[in-house]
């Protein structure tokens, strides 16, 4: 085996040759290698998030902030919706209105007012309370007893009663004509007068009977009436609803016969000096 020549000391003053280093211990080899190794280890140990583009960091932060903001807005909207939503209130109970009272056809046609009662002796004048009414009168005397209506100029409007001596009966005014304002009474004795609405007249029943003048409400259907009268003076029977007069009987003295009645509502006006009867069939 060959060996490298070893330095042999020479003579005095001779220097030894420099020693030769192995290749891996030479500085020009170790320094670059160390740098490469350090860079590689740094890359392997570093966090990928830390090596990301710094400019993207704010966007990432904003993106992460968005989820926390969204629930807050949703919650506020839910609260507003809950507080502004209409609150169901109980449905009010509507009570049925009671049926309107039936209109009295006599009141509707002839009106109404407070009943007026007057009494006296001898002649007198009474202001009328309504344009149509019943007049119930009595007289105790021996001479003429006359009741008539006057118009606004104090002219005679209608003759209601014209008897001699005592009287008791019911008459009416203003059924077919209006304009009466006063009631004139001519008498020689004591008298009494009651003026009442037409609707206060009694309802006719069958058979119906009476004496003297009378007024009744007829509310039946069309019928045939058998009528009698026992007296010495005028006997008149009329039926009216206030728009037309239907003269059924106009006789003097006694009477017996049958006449047709129209269906009501209407009024039966009886003028008589004796007893009378009316029976429908």
From TrEMBL:
Ranges for region Disordered: 1-20, 47-103
Bias (Low complexity): 1-18, 47-97
Protein name per UniProt: Uncharacterized protein
């Amino acid at each position: 085996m060959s060996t490298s020549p070893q330095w042999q000391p020479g003579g005095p003053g001779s220097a030894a040759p420099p020693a030769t280093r192995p290749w891996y211990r030479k500085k020009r080899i170790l320094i670059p290698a160390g740098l490469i190794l350090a860079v590689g280890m740094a890359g392997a140990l570093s966090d990928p998030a830390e090596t990301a583009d710094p400019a993207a960091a704010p966007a990432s932060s904003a993106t992460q902030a968005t989820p926390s903001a969204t629930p807050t807005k949703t919650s506020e909207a839910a609260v507003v919706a809950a507080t502004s939503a209409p609150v169901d209130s109980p449905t009010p109970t509507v009570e049925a209105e009671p049926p309107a009272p039936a209109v009295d056809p006599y009141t509707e046609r002839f009106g109404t007012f407070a009943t007026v009662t007057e009494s006296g002796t001898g002649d007198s004048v009474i202001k009328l309370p309504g344009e149509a009414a019943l007049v119930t009168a009595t007289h105790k005397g021996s001479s003429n007893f006359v009741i008539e209506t006057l118009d606004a100029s104090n002219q005679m409007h209608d003759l209601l009663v014209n008897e001699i001596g005592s009287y008791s009966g019911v008459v009416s005014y203003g059924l077919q004509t209006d304009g009466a304002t006063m009631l004139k009474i001519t008498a020689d004795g004591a008298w009494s007068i009651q003026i009442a609405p037409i609707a206060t007249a009694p309802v006719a029943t069958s058979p119906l009977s009476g004496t003297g003048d009378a007024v009744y409400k007829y509310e039946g259907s069309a019928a045939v009436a058998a009528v009698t009268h026992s007296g010495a003076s005028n006997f008149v029977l009329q039926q009216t609803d206030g728009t037309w007069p239907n003269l059924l009987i106009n006789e003097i003295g006694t009477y017996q016969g049958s006449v047709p009645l129209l269906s009501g509502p209407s009024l039966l006006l009886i003028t008589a000096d004796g007893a009378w009867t009316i029976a429908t069939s």
